[in-house]
Write a structure and sequence with these properties.
249 residues, five-stranded parallel beta sheet, globular, disordered N terminus
Length: 249
């Protein structure tokens, strides 16, 4: 459900900026622990918003399909799309590293639900002709059906997409770094989930995957001066204690 007459400025950006140098997101991923302060996460969101608006010309109601494994970059792109009134569709994917290694077969029942050669009829009906596809497999049939394709390497410190890009596919990290650090885009109403009611001061919230399944809780945590830790599968009890986790979602 959308929050009427409320934009990302008050829901997302102002709370993140208020955190300043305090950690907004601690990501325990492929590059060990990566910490994004409130300023840094807000900056990523602002750059992503500007890029989607200026380069991709995303408009309210446009469908943005996230065909990525859970990652903080995926979260940033979802927040940016909602900030511009987009409709976000997230395809189910495993965390990077959870699947079989090259040359191994996936255990029965754990195959990726949207492999690169999946036919269009295997995809949800509303993503057959998406406006934008964000993916780490830009040669897929799904990517070929989109007006705009953003290639993203789901690796925290990757400076660009590590692979050959088909014609007209954008390297998101390479392009978004050149976007303005200042928000100069008029924002429509926020089209994402509404924040949950705050019940704790400065919570440290441990989330599954990148937290896209509990966005109301993320917005609640940031608004209350807290932060987010994830993915839970990579956070041991000892690490959770070190991160001062106060709640799980």
């Amino acid at each position: 459900m959308s929050t009427a007459s409320t934009t990302a400025t008050s829901l997302l950006l102002a709370p993140l900026e208020a955190l300043g140098p305090l950690p907004a997101l601690a990501w325990h991923g492929e590059a060990s622990r990566i910490e994004l302060s409130g300023h840094v996460l807000a900056n990523w969101a602002i750059k992503a918003i500007g890029h989607l608006h200026d380069e991709v010309t995303l408009e309210p109601g446009d469908v943005v399909v996230l065909d990525l494994p859970p990652h903080w970059k995926r979260l940033v792109l979802a927040l940016a799309a909602w900030s511009l009134g987009g409709e976000v569709v997230t395809l189910p994917r495993r965390l990077a590293g959870d699947g079989p290694r090259a040359g191994q077969d996936a255990p029965e029942g754990t195959e990726d639900p949207a492999p690169e050669d999946a036919p269009a009829e295997a995809l949800p009906e509303r993503v057959e002709d998406p406006r934008v596809v964000v993916t780490d497999r830009p040669g897929s049939a799904l990517a070929g059906s989109a007006d705009e394709v953003l290639a993203v390497q789901p690796v925290s410190l990757a400076p660009r997409y590590d692979g050959e890009l088909p014609p007209l596919v954008r390297d998101w990290v390479l392009e978004v770094r050149g976007s303005s650090d200042r928000l100069s885009v008029p924002l429509p109403d926020w089209s994402g989930p509404s924040p949950a009611a705050s019940s704790e001061r400065a919570p440290r919230l441990l989330v599954e995957d990148d937290g896209l399944g509990v966005v109301p809780r993320l917005l609640e945590a940031w608004a209350a001066g807290g932060g987010v830790v994830g993915p839970a599968a990579s956070v041991t009890d000892h690490r959770a204690t070190e991160e001062r986790v106060t709640a799980r979602a």
